[in-house]
Amino acid sequence: MNALMNDFDIKNASETTPQRWDGFSEIDEAIRENRLTEYRLRKSWADPWSRRLTIGVLIVIAAGFAFLAGTSLGFF
Question: How far apart are CA 27 and CA 18, in angstroms?
Answer without folding.
Answer: 17
